[in-house]
Write a structure and sequence with these properties.
single chain; about 350 residues; alpha/beta; Pyrimidine Nucleoside Phosphorylase, Chain A, domain 2; 2 domains; seven-stranded mixed sheet; about 45% helix
């Protein structure tokens, strides 16, 4: 048993009136002890559920993010005129709405951008379809690539995926605890903020509950994250909704200050509104994804253009949202996205 960890556990688990917040350094130490199993299973489980009940603070998440950057892998910068788009997608997947991030990534890459995804296998407590399986439905299997091979793919086609069970196994040591406690621990928010890229980047991440927005903003400010986009997205992802107003915030370091500008956007004002696309199953998902890539129409196409146009604008490839939407539509219609997918498939298979 770790006596040092026990003292940290006492702080977060002492009850409503007597608990204390951890400093950034203490939170880093706590996660370090949990990931490396220097804390006992009983201590780890107690900490995760107590932290969940008490709710984390921004300094605590910043400290835990320090540990992810200390132990986690990092892709090296690649030549690009634009910052990389690092998309933080909930690791426990999607269960209701169509996952659009891989399609968005293909469109942005087809326009000359760089996009990085990260995630693992099916994960509690949601057990939704994880991002890596959506890519598999597109005929791209990232799971067997080494970190060096992912780097080569990124340099070749502007797309990369870090599969945590292979590339960051230390981060998977706490997955059994998630299942056993039956609740998402604050680590689920931490994963969204992680940026495993050494070059200029814009981190895109989502949230569901409004208090989470301030929590993430505070942690990213403490971490001096140069640029990020925070979206009240579909199922906590950074996929933009079409049937309600998009609430987004754009954070950036300007001089010595962190600015944060709110955006309120309605897809119907731009001709892309409509009901959210439901998540199909199995071969139906693969068929729907392939249809969009090949230039098909319908709700999937509208949702893809809406999302891709927004992120083309945010990374600076397009000067406005309207220009981004037009470019995304053109890239799908001309076959540029399909060509990028074929190049990606060939590059991944050849590694």
């Amino acid at each position: 048993m770790s006596d040092q960890f026990r003292e940290l556990l006492k702080k977060v688990g002492s009850g409503t009136h007597t608990h204390k917040h951890l400093s950034r350094e203490e939170a880093a130490t706590a996660l370090d002890y949990m990931l490396t199993q220097r804390a006992t299973p009983a201590q780890i489980g107690a900490f995760l559920i107590a932290h969940r009940i008490r709710r984390p603070t921004s300094p605590e998440l910043a400290g835990m993010l320090d540990i992810y950057h200390r132990y986690g892998p990092q892709l090296q910068p690649v030549a690009s005129d634009y910052p990389a788009l690092v998309m933080g997608i909930p690791y426990d997947g999607r269960s209701r709405t169509a996952p659009l991030a891989p399609l968005t990534a293909l469109v942005v890459a087809a326009a000359g951008g760089v996009v990085i995804h990260h995630g693992g296998a099916v994960m509690p407590t949601k057990y939704g379809i994880p991002l890596v399986e959506v890519w598999q439905s597109l005929g791209v299997d990232w799971r067997g690539l080494t970190l060096g091979q992912v780097q080569q793919v990124l340099e070749s086609v502007g797309l990369g995926f870090l599969y945590t069970p292979h590339h960051f196994p230390l981060a998977t040591t706490l997955i059994p605890y998630r299942e056993q406690i039956g609740k998402r621990p604050p680590l689920a928010t931490l994963e969204l903020m992680w940026c495993p890229y050494g070059g200029a980047a814009i981190v895109a991440l989502g949230y569901v509950h409004p208090p989470t927005e301030d929590l993430i903003r505070g942690a990213l400010a403490l971490h001096q994250t140069p640029a990020y986009v925070l979206v009240k997205g579909l199922e906590g992802s950074c996929d933009l909704p079409r049937d309600r107003t998009v609430i987004a915030g754009v954070g950036a370091i300007q001089g010595e200050e962190m600015t944060y500008d709110r955006l309120f956007l309605r897809a119907k004002d731009y001709g892309y509104g409509g009901p959210e696309v439901a998540l199909p199953s199995g071969s139906n998902l693969a068929a729907a994804l392939e249809d969009v890539v090949q230039g098909g129409g319908g709700p999937w196409r509208s949702a893809t253009v809406w999302n891709s146009g927004f992120y083309l604008w945010q990374v600076g490839i397009s000067r406005s949202l309207e220009a981004g939407l037009a470019l995304a539509d053109t890239l799908l219609s001309t076959g540029a996205v399909a060509q990028r997918l074929e190049a990606l498939r060939a590059c991944v298979v050849s590694r």
